[in-house]
């Protein structure tokens, strides 16, 4: 794929009238070639368009020794794109290109994104691939986990767990999986009643359930067996 992350010179344009949007332009000091066969990381990742874009971003981050910071950026974008209205704006063909770039400028500033992370969004806009952004985010996570030998775990609990508990969970998972690193994503789930669950492994295929909800379900199932 011959596209590259590079600075695009934009001619003078009228200011966006919406007060929520920024008027400044970001600058992007380097370009990145999109890989044809997995890029410098040489991973057996998805051959889909989303996988190619995700690997390109990871290649850029790795080359500039900012893989961790880029991963943080991607997590910020993942949370932001949970709002479907943001993506609707970007894919709307009636919204002018310069207005979309203004929105990206605002996003980059408000989320403190790295310059090439912001430029990556511009590339997706220019190539009409912004509709794939959520898929690209997921693919990037796979690339990152592969490169850094990281196990991703989603921990659900009724209340927010403190850093000490999360550190203990990470240490336990590290021993259990043999992973070099463990990243924990926390989710609040009132339906658990108390306790917590840990989902990890490929596509979240493994589950450790320490919730009261699970205990109650087990008790109910046991009682049904006895009554049967």
UniProtKB/TrEMBL annotation:
Signal peptide positions (record): none
Pfam family, one: OSCP
Keyword Ion transport: yes
Record carries keyword Translocase: no
GO cellular component, one term: membrane
Places the protein is found: Membrane
Primary localisation category: membrane
Protein origin, superkingdom: Eukaryota
One example GO MF annotation: proton-transporting ATP synthase activity, rotational mechanism
Keywords: ATP synthesis, Hydrogen ion transport, Ion transport, Membrane, Transport
Protein family (similarity comment): Belongs to the ATPase delta chain family.
HAMAP family noted in UniProt: ATP_synth_delta_bact
Quaternary structure note: F-type ATPases have 2 components, CF(1) - the catalytic core - and CF(0) - the membrane proton channel. CF(1) has five subunits: alpha(3), beta(3), gamma(1), delta(1), epsilon(1). CF(0) has three main subunits: a, b and c.
Designated name of the protein: ATP synthase delta chain, chloroplastic
Organism of this sequence: Microthlaspi erraticum
């Amino acid at each position: 794929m011959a596209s590259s992350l590079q600075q695009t010179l934009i001619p003078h344009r009228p200011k966006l009238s919406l007060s929520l949007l920024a008027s400044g332009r970001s600058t992007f000091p380097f370009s990145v070639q999109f890989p044809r066969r997995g890029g410098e990381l040489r991973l057996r990742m998805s051959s889909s368009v989303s996988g190619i874009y995700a690997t390109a971003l990871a290649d850029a981050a790795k080359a500039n020794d900012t893989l961790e910071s880029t991963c943080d950026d991607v997590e910020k974008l993942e949370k932001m794109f949970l709002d479907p209205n943001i993506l609707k704006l970007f894919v709307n063909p009636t919204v002018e290109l310069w207005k979309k770039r203004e929105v990206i400028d605002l996003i980059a500033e408000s989320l403190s994104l790295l310059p090439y992370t912001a430029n990556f969004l511009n590339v997706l806009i220019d190539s009409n691939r912004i509709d794939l952004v959520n898929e690209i985010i997921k693919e990037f996570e796979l690339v990152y986990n592969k490169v850094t030998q990281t196990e991703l775990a989603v921990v659900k609990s009724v209340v927010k767990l403190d850093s000490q508990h999360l550190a203990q969970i990470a240490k336990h998972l590290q021993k259990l999986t043999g992973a070099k690193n463990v990243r924990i994503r926390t989710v609040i789930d009132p339906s658990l009643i108390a306790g917590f669950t840990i989902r990890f492994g490929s596509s979240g295929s493994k589950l450790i359930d320490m919730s009261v909800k699970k205990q109650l379900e087990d008790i109910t199932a046991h009682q049904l067996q006895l009554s049967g």
